[in-house]
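Document type: protein sequence-to-structure record

Subject area: structural biology

Format: plain text, a pair of labelled lines:
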Amino acid sequence: MLKQLKGITGLAALVALTACGGEGEEENGQEANGNDGQEESNEQSGELTIYSSGPGGMAEELAEAFEEESGIEVDLFQSTTGDVLGRLEGEASNPIADVVALASMPPAMEYKQEGLTYEYESEYAGSMREGWYDEDHHFYGFSAAALGLSYNTDMVDEAPADWDGLLDSEYEDQIAIPDPQESGTARDFVSAFIQQEGDDGWELFEDLTANGLQMEGANTPALESVISGANTFVMAGVDYMVYNNIEDGEPVDIAFPESGTTITPRPAFILESSENKPEAEAYIDFILSDEGQEIVADAYLMPGREDVPAHEDRAQPEDIEMLDFDWEFLDENGQDILEEFLEVVR
C-alpha cells in the first residue's frame, strides 16, 4: 500500500534550492520514513522510496500503478523540487531515497557530475526524445512541461503573439511570473531567454518590470492569481496546470510566443546510494513503459518517449517554438543569471 511521506522545509531546502534551483509548482509534501543502512544486494527487498516533485496526482498514480504491477511497496515523498533537494541535502550522510524525480534538468546534471547518480540503461532508452535524457543513462526526462503565456480568458480574448507584447500599457500591473527562486522551470526559462537574447533580453525584463511585472511565488500561486483575476497574465507558466484548469472549467488558456520558449524535461534518476537498485530499475522501466507514459499524457504533461503521443487537447511538442539554448549553459550560468534577474525585478 502506497505510503505518503511528510517533508522537511527550512534552511536545508533553501541551501539546496540556491545550489541547484527549485520548482515550487506542486503540492506540499506528505509523510516519510527511512531505511537503515544495508550492504548493496542484487536481491529485491520488495521496497522502494521515491522522492518526487510531482505533480502530486500523477506522482501518486504512477506509484500506485507500479505497486499494483510489481508488488513492490512504495514510500512516496511528494513536494516541490526545492523541498526534495533540501531533504536530500539533509540526508546526505544517511541517504534514504532510491529514486528521485525533479521538475528541472540542471539539478539532475549536477547530481551526475558529483557522482551521486546510478547508471542504468532502461529498455526504453532508445525510444526517448532527443535531448530529454542523459546519453550515459544516468537520468531520463520521462515527462516534460512547456512554458508559455497563461492568461485569463474573461479579461482578454487572446495573448500577445510574443513576450514583448506584455509591454502594452493596458497590461500595466497585470503581469506575473513564477519566482525563479521557487520554480526551477521559471529559472530555466530566464536563463534560456538570456542565452538567446543577451542584452536585449535584459532590456525586456527591465521594461517589463517598469510595466509592473511581479513575482508571484511558485507556479501554483502565480496561476491562481490569473484565475482569480488579480493578474491577467503569467509569463513563463507551466502549461499542464493550465490544461488541467481548463478541464475543470476555469477561465484560463495558454499561448506559446513566436520567439520561443522552453520545454523542460522532468528527470528521474536512481541514486548511487540506493540499497534497492533492482526495485529502482523496475520503477524507471515502469514510468517509461506504455502504461507509465499514458499516465503522464493523461496529466497533460508531454511523454518522454517519441512513440507516445501527448494528450490530444494540448499543444504537441513539435508545434511549440523553442528558444535557442543548451542545458550545459543553464547548468553553468543559471545561478549568476538568477541573481541578476532578481536585482532587475525586485
Notes: Confidence is low (pLDDT under 50) at residues 8-41. The longest helix spans residues 327-345.
